Amino acid sequence: MPLSVVSVPTKKKKPSLVLTLTVAGALVIGGVAAYWLITQGKPLSRDLPPAANVIPQDALFTVSLTTDAKQWKRLHEFGNKEVQAELNQNLVQLRDRFLTNNGYDFQKDIAPWVGEEITLAVLAPDVTKPPAKPVATDGQVANSQQIMMVLPIKNPQNAKNILTQLQAPQGGNWSDRNYHNFVIKESAAKTGEKFSATVIDSKFVVITDTPKATEKAIDAYIAKTSLSTVPGLAANFPKVANYQPFAQFYINVPTSAKIASAAPNRQLPAQVLTQLQNNQGLAGTVFLENQGIRLKGVSWLNPSSQRTLAVENKAGEMQKRIPAETLMMISGSNLKRAWADYVSTSQGNPLSPIAPEQLRTNFKSLTNMDLERDLLSWMGNEYSLSVVPVVSKVGADENFRAALMLLVKVSNKNRAEAAMKQLDEVMQSQYQFRIEEQKIAGKTVTNWIGTFGIPTASHGWLDDRLAFLTIGAPITEKILTQSGNSLANAIEFQNTLPSQLNPANGQFYLDVDRTQKNFPLPLLFPKQQALLAATRSIGITSAVSDNRSTRYDIFVSLKQLEK
What we know:
Layout: H1 15-31, E1 61-66, H2 69-75, H3 81-98, H4 106-110, E2 117-123, E3 136-137, E4 140-141, E5 146-152, H5 156-159, E6 175-179, E7 182-188, E8 194-200, E9 204-208, H6 211-223, H7 233-236, E10 247-252, H8 253-262, H9 270-277, E11 279-289, E12 292-301, E13 328-332, H10 335-346, H11 356-367, H12 371-375, E14 383-390, E15 401-409, H13 413-431, E16 434-440, E17 443-449, E18 455-461, E19 466-472, H14 476-480, H15 491-496, E20 506-511, H16 512-518, H17 528-533, E21 535-544, E22 549-558
Antiparallel strand pairs: 1-2, 1-10, 2-5, 3-4, 5-9, 6-7, 7-8, 8-9, 10-11, 11-12, 12-22, 13-14, 13-20, 14-15, 15-19, 16-17, 17-18, 18-19, 20-21, 21-22
Helix pairs in contact: 1-10
């Protein structure tokens, strides 16, 4: 694996837009939590990464990276210098930790015999004894997780003497011992880490940062309690596998949730932990394409879980009614159910971006209406939430405005009209908005007119079942008279949004480039600005296959690295 070649996958903010984007992110994580699973073929462990036969089944996380130099070179063509430098630093640290510091030179010692991919795994901590007290180094808390690197052997002849040729890390000495008839070489580095290596049946070279982890790999291989035996993994992973991917990954959801819950100051509420325990795993495959990175993922429920998924794949029509210049769009099959899913994982959860109980309370205090009974009860069909920009004729940045637009196919038009009428009355009586109706393209539109005589919000019907509500800049005429100039026909949208999952349960689209220029996104993770600067757009499509498993596709359109 050529770890030296790396790259990326990668005026003030208006409060209303920040809230919009935050809500959208919450719905992506909580509401649109259903993906489509393509069912094809029989569950065969040979479709898994080879290292799955060695890594213990309780591993928290695994990632397999290609050893194909051409793919690494292709990845190097994306992004920007800042992101590439960051990734290069991280990968070089891994290379040095497991290879260079253990006497290996990748091109000289590894490349001649290694297989098509190298796998890194984070193992679950040993629960038989309390974890050691973390040791702080340079202000950082030491990482207590055990790390394993598995290198499949493609050429046993070239690899048979690899252990005898090893140099001890950082001038130390190797010691040999036997474990279940496997020779384990061990050496303590000056950093305090105890590196360990072994060859398993001329099939795998296993390098770990603790001898105990090497024993776990041998035990898993002998007892057939490896990752390949995880319930559902062998059945589901082939549905996202492909020939010569750039990377493959697996996340052990319930075990990871338990550990996250036990972390200081990061405890998950009991109901959230229970929800996560219903899930067994999340796996995926990453591919490099000419314009960016594609990820195909699959998740499935724990076999013992009583939870089932609702098979609703009714999304995909709303983008035909949304303006082409839309910055962000999220759509789904059932807004009522999406809200219920979000509530089930977010209520009482301090990590949730927006507390559902707070939304309920605020809506009640502002409108004297019940969010679920008066609104969501008739929103049990396809919906979309979008941010639509409005640019003045002069095109100056300070004149750039946007509207939040909700489209929803109603299940009961009478209840919908009654609810909107009640909302009109509240806006007029409590907030002194002037309520006026107008005709646009033959359709009746109700406007909430603010202090300066400008519509602050508008609502009406695009057809007999499709209701719309816009808040912010006036865009009603645009959505009623677009004449085919829709988001569905926009080239960037078509090139970004994955379309293989059809019918879909939900979709998400974000024009990162234009959004960043006009409405900077909230800071959510380190190095975010550098990653977003390297990204054009992001598209996600999800769909439900059956009541036990889900599938999703993601495409990240990336900029080419400037030479």
